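Objective 1b: paired records.
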Amino acid sequence: TRPTWQGWCHGETDVGIATMKLVYGDTQLENEDIKLVQSPGWLNDKVVSFAMEHFGRDEFGARLASAAFLPAPIVQMVSLIDSPAELGLILADLKLGEKGTIFLPLNDHDDPMQRGGSHWALLVYHARTWALYDSITTVGQSTMEDKATWVANRIAAAFGLAAPTAAVSTPKCAQQVNGFDCGVYAVAFAHSIATAIVDSEKVHDQGVATITPGDISQWRDRLYTTITKLCDT
């Protein structure tokens, strides 16, 4: 048996084309998922979840033991469950009530019967406050803010955390310049915020505000390199 914390990967050849498959913790990436990282594609929930799990297990690990990096499917489930009591039972093993920081990749998809979604943002709980970091913000846009507030209130009620007084805050953050990099921005925001907390125990919003399109391109390379290195272990 393979330990759940250890990544493993194998390559195959199909009509001369090399393929990859990575199993890492609770995340499994197929070849088509990995291609989204390397190409300028929209990251799906599996790739975003891999990044969050890698941050929690390896990138920060013991340095940020009081944090939880939630996978995208868990966050989506939170948004669809009305009962805080039921939610608390389902997610009891995560012990979110004991966490000082929680990272939640948020998707705009709301239909529980179908797969989908078109946008990612990052919801963060830290120092008893909630903040939404969204790489696309427009005047009058409230869909992601409404969903973030809903999710924050469900988590707070289920685990005894501080709830947002009204809506979650929306600090200034870098804005994407295309229609497909939102997932990479959410990953980059999470890393920037986690690094700031490790270094100073505080969230420094200037870090998420200064991320550039060039940084995002480098993040794609970084994710792809991380995946391929795990394939070699």
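Objective 1b, second protein:
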Amino acid sequence: MGFVQCAQSISKDLASSTAIKSTTEDTEKSKSIWSLDSPLEHLFENNKKWVRESVEKDPEVFTRLKDAQQPKYLYIGCSDSRVPAQNMLGLQAGELFVIRNVANLCINSDFSLLSVLLFSIEVLEVTDVIVCGHYGCGGVNAAMKNKDHGLLEHWLHHIRNVQRLHKSELVQIPDESQRFKRLVELNVQESCLNLFSNPIVQKKQATASQPRIHGWVYDIATGYVKDLKIDFKTEIKKYRDIYRLYDFPGGGAGPGMTGAMNVNMISQKADEAAEQLIGAAGDVEQKGFWGRIFR
């Protein structure tokens, strides 16, 4: 056999071997998808252990939870697996209503968020809404790069807008890691402001003086949660003529609002509830967040 014939023979053998290997791998992958043998049996064992421990601590826990839930808090956080929302706050099942997404964004066109807001605020009547970011957030970090992230870019665009709004502050931070941390905080702040502008939130605040909104950041390196203590009153005053949709206890129609807009946006029931709140409130603190701002 000549050199050329030998090379051709080896090439055919390699091609055949590669095809067999590829077919075998495809078969194994197919088995792993459709196999009834669960590779996650350890998770079921963990579940059984969790049930035993839960019942030992509280024998009626599951009997109680099956009938209803009464959480006081709505938690809006990042999907990052290193942020254990319920555990890090020391809460039990039924005490925290949760929605998570990449970089804990509150986007008022996100129907998943809107459905959670409506249910938690109108049905569960949570008293507090917590937006919690975390240092080292991959979503925020990606938005700091001048790189197209494909489909994800449509989501990250909202974080890029946060950078634009706060560019004058961010460019003054020379250290990139500190600038990263500050953007995480500002992203939480803007998500909180988006909630204040949301009609579901505003309506409830106008009629029931709740929910309160909080901006927090979780530090994965320490396990501690930080309250950003955002001055919402000052921030909201900047844009009140744009985003205010309701008459609030303690405040009039406000600049930029017409009588027709108020009639269309505020139901008679809301007006009556607001009047009752004003009459019952003995101090400014009970008159609603927006009411204190727009007095």
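The CA atoms of residues 141 and 180 lie 7 Å apart. DSSP finds 15 helices and five strands in the chain.
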